[in-house]
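Continuing from the previous page...

OK, I double-checked the sequence for L-arabinose-binding periplasmic protein against my notes and this is the correct one:
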Amino acid sequence: MKSLKVLTGIAMMGAAIAVPAQAEDIKIGYINKMGDHPWFVAEVDGARQKAAEMGADFVAQDVQFNADLTITTLDTMIGDGVDGIAIVVPDRALGPVVAARAKEAGVPLVAVDDDIYFEDETQVPYVGMNAHNIGLSVGEKLAELYKQENWAEEGEVRIASIEDRKADTCMQRNRGAEEAFLEAVPDFDPDNIVRVPYDNTMVSSIDAMTTTLTANPQVTHWIFYSCNDDGVLGAARALENAGYGPEQGIGVGIDGSRACDAFGSGKPTAFRGTMWLNSENHGAQAVELLVKNIRDGEELPTTTYTQPEYISADNFDLYEERLCG
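Thanks. Re-ran it with the corrected sequence; updated structure tokens here:
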């Protein structure tokens, strides 16, 4: 009888070892770079909701573009025993450091919104948009609007490429927009593209575009694209402040975070539309992948892309409650 009890105990111990982690024993950390921005507010909410749905604990930290705080937060989360981390890096140059520390600690890592790489250039599992492809969508829509409004007949038309040059993901979006527009409008002179640097915020875009307008008083019509809605709405506001009519600008944003600001009043605007990506899905997808990897041993895919929806004044009513509620 004693031998049977010992054998039973050994079997039970073996079964316990073989059982994967339960969701309620899993803790996910989420690091984001700009927690007060609507995009990231929604993204973290989506991540938190998915964690609760899957029975996992969740902790989030906003690092406000601070590289040192990013590393400190990562180390703190690892020290506190998180089982997986999703991160939106403030600077892609941090990628190899972040990836190495997570790997050394044995903590699975998912990059969200901005792709990052190990030192050997192996990509960290990534959830977000295909930056170049969404830029192509922007350029195609801008070309469509340009043709619809017969801007080829206007005397002085320029493109303002509003660029965050520190962020490679942002530059991929801009390059995609430029490529698609010039392909669709082959007669447009590339020399008529003005490079406008900004820091990813609306205030910076307003200031930079205001300076650009002052330097180019002969231009009557402006086309503009950027990394995000802030860059495009900032340009639209600069046009308005400088006395241009909404019909003198065509801008298409990315992310949908400023759709309510642009279309909520019902007034015409040079911000013609945005490629909306539901950032809640980004956060939720990252958490789901991490929990399934930790709990079930499912391999983390290298890339998980989300697809945009085009929002304009014409269909804003279909999105207003979701985006502005």
